[in-house]
What we know:
Layout: E1 2-6, H1 11-21, E2 27-32, E3 39-40, H2 48-58, E4 62-65, H3 74-94, E5 100-106, H4 130-143, E6 149-154, E7 156-158, H5 167-181, E8 185-189, E9 194-195, E10 197-199, H6 200-212, E11 217-221, E12 227-228, H7 229-240, E13 245-249, E14 267-268, H8 298-304, H9 312-324
Parallel strand pairs: 1-2, 1-4, 2-3, 4-5, 5-6, 6-11, 7-10, 8-13
Antiparallel strand pairs: 8-14, 9-12
Helix pairs in contact: 1-6, 2-3, 3-4, 5-7, 5-9, 7-9
Amino acid sequence: MRVLLLGANGFIGRFVADRLLADPAVHLTALGRGDDADVRFDLAGGSPGALTRFLDAVHPGVVINCAGTTRGGARELTRHNTVAVATVCEALRRSGCGARLVQLGCASEYGPSQPGSSTAEDAVPRPGGPYGVSKLAATELVLGAGLDAVVLRVFSPVGPGTPAGSPLGRLAEAMRRAMQSGDGELKLGGLGVQRDFVDVRDVARAVHAASLSAAQGIVNIGTGRAVRLRDAAAVLARVAGYGGALHELDAPSRPSLSAMGSLASIGAQRGESLPDQPAAGAHPYPDGCGSWQQADVRTARDRLGWRPRINLEESLADIWMEAACRI
């Protein structure tokens, strides 16, 4: 099976590439903007015609799109998350390859959920920020293109390679700094938010399964269990061997700053800011999902035969291992 992978150098894309390369039945070609891509092509700026010619030459059976960005203003998010997907869809429509498309979406497309609920694929999406809007627009383009396509709405991916700007990445960095400087106390803000954390390696397994399946439409990829960030912080302290005290600060009261974003306020006892800390009021992880998100994962089980295998403690241990290398 010939597979064309877009975004192979991203957080999720790297693990998808590893998963596909481990399958002897897969012949993988990576397309991207970096020098290490098999073929260099900018989805946000390239023409559908050029991509069509490449598809006709390679003739993949599956195209997997892991490309996109979580950062930047509305214009940049639209270019990389929406316009790029429009280019892919148009190229596939023009091409004679008849490839199946596996598009990676995200839980931010849903927006805030009712605490205690599990969000199913038929939920009405109400994204709470420009990132979710740009990804939702991409999903609508895929579903309306008349292609053999499936969109995997990934909830909160974690594990090795977790971006330093994400809440758990910032938490690990704060703990590393505290241990390195001998601080016996960490003051952490916004730990009441709850998210469905799914290991990036399980996400890669889901992508592989989706590429082989006949499933179409939207499929949630998560664990089906929301975890409070304060509980994740306690687990991370345990795997890190941090014996200091964890003190939770009051959550910010400004409505413009979500609880997820408030992890930007993590600091040590002396009030130091984290490296690359955004300015006050900035949104370090613009998911716009409020205080609660939990996936209904029955569709992934029934249509992909997929279940998560890696627990959060293992994911956090891998995040900490990378942070500890910087001590």
